[in-house]
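Q: What would this chain look like folded?
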Amino acid sequence: MIRLLTLTALLASGLAAPMLLMAHDGETHYDRINLSASAGSEIDTDTLVAVLFKQHQSSDQATASDEVNRSIRWAIEQAKAANVKVTTSSYNTQPIYQKQNITGWRVRQSIRVESSDAKLLAELLGELQQELSIQTLQNELSIAARKQAEEGLIAEALNAFQDRAAAIAKTLGRSGHKIVNININASGGRPPRPMMRGAVAMESAAKVAAPAIESDSLRVEVRVNGTIELIAP
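A: My prediction, written as structure tokens:
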């Protein structure tokens, strides 16, 4: 009998714990408020990025590919010689149809060049435009510059969030607040601006004049969203 009572007591205590936990998890919370705050700033760009392409079409696929490959290899060599970062991009080969018959081939490949020295890159672009065309040209923030800007703005946004939460608690006659959850998101920049999109590069022995480039700035913004719970007076 004693053993039976002991076992019954243990089972009862074991069932009681999860019931209390469920009651705690399902507890209704009052006076929770969702709010947001943000901080932003215009940051001077420090990197110039250009995307260039070579396109050629011919009745023979091998001829079209060879022309594009030759020009892209030459462009990569020029970029490396100028100590400019260069990466290859999309490579497309498309048939040209006439009355449902293939009459030729169009081949296209792009490269991306970037540098923190705008003048140097502008001069290189003048060289590369002998055989390639510029698709997009834009000012950007480097990863390091964007990270530095975001770190400062995160502190500003969090302070703004806390100030707004404190103002809400005071207005509603509460002694304070506690943060239930909080999310931080950073954004900024703009889509690339096209230049001469769809144009085919003009082959010339003469160097093309460097494109005009002006300094620019980008807006970086940090937004804080979260939920607070007001503390009773």
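The helical segments are 2-25, 61-81, 118-128, 143-171.
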